[in-house]
Amino acid sequence: MSAAKTTAPVAMTCGEPAGVGPELAVAAWQSLGATLPFFWIGDPRHLPAGTALSLIDDPSETPAASAHGLPVLAHEFAGDARRGSADPANAQGVIDVIARAVDLTMSDAASAICTAPIHKKALKDGAGFAYPGHTEYLAALAGRDRVVMMLASPQLRVVPVTIHIAIKDVPVALNPALLTDTILITHAALRRDFGIARPRLAVAGLNPHAGEGGAMGMEEIEMITPTLDALRGQGLDIAGPLPADTMFHAPARARYDVAICMYHDQALIPIKTLDFDRGVNITLGLPFIRTSPDHGTAFDIAGKGIANPSSLIEALKVAASMGAARAAASG
Fold this sequence. Notes:
- It is built from eleven helices and twelve strands.
- It is α/β, with parallel strands linked by helices.
- The chain has two domains: 190 residues, Isopropylmalate Dehydrogenase; 140 residues, Isopropylmalate Dehydrogenase.
- Strands 3-4-2-1-5-12-11-6-7-10-8-9 form a twelve-stranded mixed sheet, sandwiched between helices.
- Helix 3 crosses helix 4.
- It starts with 9 loop residues before the first strand and ends with a helix.
- It catalyses: 4-(phosphooxy)-L-threonine + NAD(+) = 3-amino-2-oxopropyl phosphate + CO2 + NADH.
- Keywords: Cobalt, Cytoplasm, Magnesium, Metal-binding, NAD, NADP, Oxidoreductase, Pyridoxine biosynthesis, Zinc.
C-alpha cells in the first residue's frame, strides 16, 4: 500500500438500509465532523429525513465536504428503505456497495473500510448471496483463503480461533495448522496495523484450568503446547496455554497485547463484559483494513433515534488508526 493512505479518508458502507446503519452514520459524522474524515457509500434516499449531507464525486473531496455535512458517495438502490423491514430489492445494492468500497481501498482512494451491519437473510433472499457473512465475502473479494476475526476495545483485544460452531465441534476443529495460522496472522497485524514492534500474545487453553496436566483433557498437552512451542522457536512472544478464567482481570490484561481464545464465547464474553458499547470487529489477514461495529441491524429500534453510535464511532477511529499505521509500515 502506498504512502497516500496517510491522508485518504475511511470508506463506510451503508449496510442494510432498513437497519440502524444510516442513522448511526449520521450520528458518527455529528460526533466526529472533520476530525476524522470518512465518507458514506449508499443511496441518499436511505438517510434519515433532514440529514445534512454533502454529495461527493471522489473520496478526495471528503475532508472539505465533512465541514458541511455527512460526505456521501451516492450509489443508487432499487428500492426505498422502510425502517425495520428489509426490502429484498435492495440486496444487490448492499452487496455492490461492499465491493465498491473494496475497490476504492485497494486503489488507495480510501485508507480503510468500516462496514455497517448487513442482514444476511435479506441478501440471500434478494440476491442469492452465497456467503455466510461480511467477512467471507470480503475474503473472497480479496482472494484470501483464511482471515481472522478480532474483537477490540480500549481495554482488551481478543481473537477466537474457532468462531460460529457448536461447542461440541470445537475440539474437532482445532488443529495445529488452524492455531498456527491464527496466531501468525494476528502477530503480523499487531506489528503492521497497530504499530506494536514485539507483540505479546496470551493463548488460552481449551479445557478448565488449561487441562490441569491432563486431568481435564489432553488437548493442551497433545496439540496446543507443541504448537505454541514451535511458534516460540520462531521468535514469537507467547504465554500459554493459560487457564481462561484467570486471563482477563486487569493485572493479567496488562501482560499481553491480545488474547487468543479457543472458541467464540471464551473470547467474546470478557470483552463484551468489560466494554460492551465500544467493541469493534476487525478482520485481520486482508490486504486492506476492515472494521465494523460489534452489533447487528437492530430492526426493532431502527428509525427511533435511540441507537447507540459508540461502537460505530470506535470502529471508525480504529479504522483510521490502523490505516495510518499500515501506511507508515509500508513506507
